[in-house]
Design brief:
2 copies of one chain form a homodimer. Chain A has 10 helices and 12 strands. With 311 residues, chain A is α+β, with helices and mostly antiparallel strands. Chain A has 2 domains: 135 residues, PurM-like, N-terminal domain (60s Ribosomal Protein L30, Chain: A); 150 residues, PurM-like C-terminal domain (Phosphoribosyl-aminoimidazole Synthetase, Chain A, domain 2). Chain A has a 7-stranded mixed beta sheet with strand order 7-9-6-10-8-11-12, with helices on both faces. In chain A, helix 2 runs parallel beside helix 3. The two termini of chain A are 37 Å apart. Strand 1 of chain A pairs antiparallel with strand 2 of chain B.
């Protein structure tokens, strides 16, 4: 099967009107008047970002969800995506078919469509990249920069999906969905547009990503670790001999959202958060100066590890 | 040097305002009111799309130029791009620096900026992908579909850059710039917006790509091969023992533009073309029915080879 047949059989059915049936050189998109665009692009390499040989539906899910998380963190609504897929020459068609099914499942859940991209072969590991495009009413996208001294620090969901998800796929124990079906927090969009002063999704680790906000916003931060919420399973793990909170704070790939908001909005945010299908936790506050202080049992704690780096 | 240092040293200086210094999760772009977006994404794999080890400034040039060609073929003006770069673990920093210099040179020539993307490592060949975003006044982007029976078929420049460019880099003879510094025909944009009914850039080969237009437009085509123009060097090669016109017609990667236009506009197009820095040649005509007919010395000719396929 050549690349044209491959595209027409597996990927053209995923194309929205912007993708012109994947029969053109480029996608055509008419932006909504009065909206800004938010664009993000992430790549995944077999053996680095996901286990060797596992490039079916699961990794397609993760590829889109990771990018959807970036869009959610900016308070934008996802519209469509382009992909570049480099398949090992030995790839079986059933894996490509499965990959396309994974894309389809995410498309249906998030109401997005495939706009374009390309398919190539590689004498090496599979490499997939996706560019996701979202829209946000003009001027309402939330940046990393923008936190002010006094702002509250909020966290969606819970920390640990990155660490336990990686353990699930590398040691084959636990819930693989924590890795492959991570839930982008796109339901936060309206709340974030209304109240968010700065926002980031956790890809490098809670401490590293919150520090990114603080640094570019030129504020300091203090986080009360006792306020962090965890599902029972992780709570039990933390209370056990193996428990390691530092690991959850520094491990990347949680894809939760950290955002800041003026403290006057704390009650309004708590009220709006009642409708969300996940926890939203006030975990700390921004201040003058710089640096991130972590407090546990009323005492400052320091950690050694930082976030993940590729080089 | 970790990925953050890498990005801040080599790539952040290339970021436009939309890229927020590459310090955010996503790019922010305010589309020009009344304009549509045109988006394209292409990947390149070391050892497949460019020679092993050659991933400095040259391949960065080619990566952007190939994508700029797609944008030019749709009559859009390029605005910005996102990249995903997978570097072999053994990469030398000087190559990354050189790659960034290649990006900068193209940015300056085409007035585009880096908006975002990511950098990862790979235990295998280098893989680079770029997503390029262009704008075009609403409804004026030219698609592959749209040629009508009776329309003229036009070709920019000349065929042969793909074949001779590949020979230059694989057999180390001839002009490497034919491969790495291919000139996207973006000066054609105004003419194409005004007159073009359908358009494509030549990535799969003249015959294959013209056939793409004919098929999705549901028209036939006839091309007079005697009308094709070539620089003296290629003309001499064609007249020699080794000359092989079929090769130039079927080899991909020429990145010239084939477009169709109503025959009534032939003179107006010729007049407008006088200002272009490259040839624009009327090579044939569309008709009822389907299929592509090639004529040489007044007789129909048939060729065996088709365009390049990856699988």
């Amino acid at each position: 099967m050549n690349e044209f047949d491959l595209i027409s059989k597996y990927f053209a059915p995923l194309a929205g009107p912007e993708g012109l049936g994947l029969l053109d050189d480029a996608a055509h998109f008419s932006p909504t008047p009065g909206f800004d665009l938010v664009l993000t692009k992430d790549a995944m390499v077999e053996g680095v970002h996901f286990p060797k040989g596992e490039y079916g539906a699961d990794v397609a899910q993760r590829l889109l969800r990771v990018n959807l998380s970036d869009i959610a963190a900016k308070a934008a609504s996802p519209r469509g995506y382009l992909i570049s897929l480099a398949w090992p020459k030995s790839v079986e068609l059933s894996l490509i078919e499965s990959f396309a099914e994974g894309l389809r499942a995410v498309q249906e859940e998030f109401k997005i469509h495939l706009w374009g991209g390309d398919t190539v072969s590689i004498d090496g590991p599979a490499v997939f990249s996706a560019t996701l495009i979202g829209e946000c009413p003009k001027g309402m996208a939330v940046k990393r920069r923008g936190a002010k001294p006094g702002d509250d620090i909020w966290l969606t969901g819970y920390l640990g999906k990155g660490y336990f998800g990686l353990r699930a796929i590398s040691e084959l124990r636990g819930d693989r969905d924590m890795f492959y079906r991570l839930p982008p927090r796109n339901q936060l969009t309206n709340l974030l547009r209304t109240f968010g002063t700065a926002s980031v999704d956790i890809s490098d680790g809670f401490i590293a990503d919150l520090s990114h906000i603080l640094e570019v916003s030129h504020v300091s931060g203090i986080v009360d670790l006792d306020r962090l919420q965890f599902p029972l399973e992780i709570k039990n793990w933390l209370a056990s001999d193996k428990g390691d909170l530092e690991r959850l704070l520094t491990h990347g790939d949680d894809y939760e959202i950290i955002f800041t908001a003026h403290e006057d909005h704390r009650l309004a945010i708590e009220k709006a958060a009642a409708d969300l299908p996940f926890n939203l936790t006030w975990v700390g506050q921004c201040g003058l100066g710089e640096g991130l202080k972590l407090v546990q049992d009323g005492k400052e704690v320091t950690f050694v590890r930082s976030g993940y780096s590729h080089f």
